[in-house]
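Morning F.,

Quick status update on the modeling queue. The single chain you submitted on Monday has been processed. Sequence for confirmation:
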Amino acid sequence: MSSVIERITNGEFVLIGEIGVNYYDIAKKENISPMDAAIKMIDEGKKAGLHAVKFQTYKAETLASKNSPSYWDLTEESSTSQYELFRKFDFFGKEEYKKLAAYCEKIGIEFLSTPFDFNSADYLENLMNVYKISSSDLTNIPFIDYQARKNKPILLSTGAANLEEIEIAVKTIRNVNDSPLVLLHCVLEYPTPKNHANLAKISTLKKHFPDVYIGYSDHTKPEDNFDVLKTAYSLGAKVIEKHYTLDKTLKGNDHYHAMDPNDIKKIISEISTLQSILGTGELNYSDTENNARKYARRSIVSKCDISKGETITYDKLCFKRPATGISPANIELIINKTAVIDIPEDTILQIDMFSK
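C-alpha cells below.
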C-alpha cells in the first residue's frame, strides 16, 4: 500500500518533495551524471524527512508544440519557449524511472512521478502506487479518464481552474475509480507571491468536495517561518507538495521557488509544533483540565442558615467555587426537598443533606 495514502487516511501530515527535473542542474553543478544527481536528491530528501519524492515524466515533443510561449518569470527562467525548455530535461525514460523507483523502495521513501503522456502513464503504472495529475492536465479529460482507469489513488492539482472544471475532473475520476482522491489547491504562478496564494480556497474545496482529501501544491518562495505552509495546514491541507532542490541559488527551472533539505527539516518541525497547538479538535476536556473542572467551577452553597426540616427554595441558595458539591446544573435535585440536618450559611451542599 502507498505510505503516502496510508498517512493521509490516518490523518497524518504528508510532505512531498517535487524534484521534477531539478536533478539535471544539480548534475551539471556537481559534475555528476543526472542519475547520480537524482539519487543524491532522493537520499538528501529522505534524510531531511520527506515522505515522498516526485519526478516529472515527459518528452518535449508530446508535451508542447514548438510554438508554446513561456508563462513563468523570465528573470528566473530565461527560456521563452516551453518546447525548448522541456527538451533540455527529457532524457530519462522507462529504464531510468525503474531504477529510481527501485532505489526509493530500497531506502524507504515513496516514489511518484507525474506522467504527461499516455506512454509514461503506462510504464509508470507498475512503478508507483499513486498517480499525480498536473494542474495543466485538469481539463485533459481523456487523459484523466485513462489514468483513473488504472484504479490507483490520485493526487489532482487544481491550479488555474474554476469550480466547474474541477467538478468535471472529479466526476471523470469517480465514474471509474473509487480509490482515495486528493485535490491539491495550487496557483500556477512561478513563483507565487504570498498575497496570491489564496489559501482560503482550501476551505472552499473542503466544502464543495467533502468526500475527498484536500492538500496544497506550493509555488511560493521559501521563508524562514513558513507561514504559507503552516496556514495551508491549519486550513486543512494535510498533504503539501513543494518543489525541492539542493541549491536554491541556481537559476532557471524550479530551483528559485523550491525548498532545500534544511527547509524540509524546518517545515516538518514547524508543522509538528503546529499539530501540537491545534490538537485533535475532539469536543471533550483534557486530563490536564481536571483540577480546573474541580476547583474553578461552582457548587450550590447555602446562602443562609438552613434548619433541619426546612424546605429548600431558590432564595436560600447561591453558587460558589469549588465544584466539590452539587453542581448548579443539578439544582432541581434539591429544590422543594427537606434538609435532614442543620446547614450553616456558606456550606457547600451535598446530596445526602436532603430528603430523598
